[in-house]
Request: fold
Amino acid sequence: MDFEEFLDRHLDGLARYARLLAGSREDAEDLLADTLTAVYRRWATVSHLDFPLAYVRTALRHCATRQRRGWSARNVLPRSPDDLPERAQADAADVVVLAHALDQALQRLRSRERAAVIMRYYLDLTYKQISDDLRVGEATARSVVARALKKLRQQLPDTWGEELQWTTKTR
Reply:
């Protein structure tokens, strides 16, 4: 498969993954462009791998980690749930506030934890696929997801507990 075919098949999913890793659309566009540029240079090698998509996801995660190291020195994130906005009336604003709070909580996770949660609950990958992407055992992938979910639950206000009923599905 050539690089254009690969992008035709996977660009939308990679863009969503980059958005969740980066925290904003603009940063995600930069992240995806930087990563795909690097992958394109190595495409002759990457295209012959058994799972080129896993390679590109890993490259995205590593690039996001490098970018975050510089980003964290320039930006300050809320450090506790008390810094998050109060719960609004039950309307469409709740969705926006929840999405923002969840996005901020995801950004406070370690990159490996963030990637595992995104792969599990947003990309709907199995633990086996996650373990392949992260290059760890399946049990380790499960524990990384579980620890990340525990951190997310601790960071988000209790009043949103009903809306954040994540379970550790076994697939």
